[in-house]
Amino acid sequence: MQIIYFFAIPLIIMAASFSVNNSKVLGRLNALAYFAILLSTFGLSINFKEPLSFFNFFYVDALSILFLFTISVVAFAAALFSIDYISKDVLSGAISEKKAKTYYLLFNLFSLSMFFVPVANNLGMVWIGIELTTLASAFLVGFYNKKASLEAAWKYIIICSVGIILALFGTIIFYYTASTHAGIRSLNWTEIVSSAKSLNVNIVKVAFLFILVGYGTKAGIAPMHTWLPDAHSQAISPVSAMLSGVLLKTAIYAILRFYVITNICVGAQFSSKLFILFGLISLGIACGFLLVQKHIKRFLAYSSIEHIGVIILGFGLGSGFALYGAFLHIFNHAVTKSLMFFGAANVVKKYKKDNMHAIRGIASAMPFTGLMLILGMFAIAGMPPFSIFFSEIFIAIGGFVKGSYLVTAFYLFFIVVIFGAIIYHLSRILFGKKPQGLAVSHEALSTKMAFIFLFIFICTVGIKVPAFLNTLIMGAVKIVTNN
Predict the structure, then answer these.
(1) In the prediction, which pLDDT does 421 show?
(2) Number of domains in the chain
(3) Low-confidence residues in the chain, pLDDT < 50
(4) Residue numbers of the domain that contains 421
(5) What residues form DSSP beta bridges with 54?
(6) CA–CA distance, 357 with 360 (Å, rounded to integer)
(7) Which helix (H) or strand (E) holds 161?
């Protein structure tokens, strides 16, 4: 019953946020809580042998645990980073102690809703969980109550609400064909997938289009991505990492559950063409905006659209190599992009500006953050021996194995251009002469620990995928291929 920890611990910290008056103490308690969740997820990962079902409401398989582990890793890192970040905001007067308590309340509500999505068996409850992530994170996007952040929060709510309505409509259509043609009076994934061949092919095609566009809006798939650059750039920085690192992936998780049903009923060719199309559109749009972007956090947000495109394209290619690479990329992007958002947060707080044309000499002004950003720059761009390089190569190999030479050529072209854009823009702000009068700063221990924790995964997975993670990915591949 380790699954209970994912809900009980955030609820305990939410209760503690009402009674603990010191933001730094609350931050430390929060970090300890998420360390406990991480240990629980790790234990679940290494001991996993077969799917677990609780009361036919919760269902945990390899696909679920892979996403749970990814969420717990990023949430723990964000909790560590939040300790000093929120404390400094309180000391500077940017927020009050009461506002800091509100942050930890929302942080845990947001995390709890993300933990709920991968363990819910009922596809209607998955929809509710994803809707809850929108409501909780919208307050964190507009956290500072500034004009730009409030506009971004409203844009986020409106666009994602339209998407979630489309996803709800798609879920209802799936239920209609499941009840009418398979006699299933439930939205439980385990029941529908076992009778997927009995569903109406044409109705399933229509339903999956609604699901892909609806949840794809939340996932940041282009051209439904328009909320993402604003929300990620305006959200409080630890939450920017969670939005980019794991929130987008929860929507992908929901799509994958319907993807399995659709492939069994219709065949893989239908969803494959859609995924390849949206994957290439996402890569192309991200490529264009990354070349001209000036705002550092928006730059990282468009990079997330690129990587979502990489993941979706991997699932579209559908070969064993490509699927393995897509699942590995979900984890690799989560840890690498979180590290980059932490670095950007420190830079913006230090320089009091976010225009990359006005920032120089980060490596001199902030030695530790500068070093992490230099390493992170090469990692997020896809340089070996960092982890993203290998997941992107797996997808490319998968494309060649599948015989999709033109698609793979476009894919390689886009990631090469984006590689150049990332190195060009970030190297300009990292190196050069720091502004006169800008003192050299040093980060708190908790902040350094957050960076190092993520970087260990970036390096380790780049050298060799840990056995437990490899087992989870292989299990997830078997689930989406229905083997």
Answers:
(1) 95
(2) 1
(3) none
(4) 2-480
(5) 58
(6) 8
(7) helix 147-181
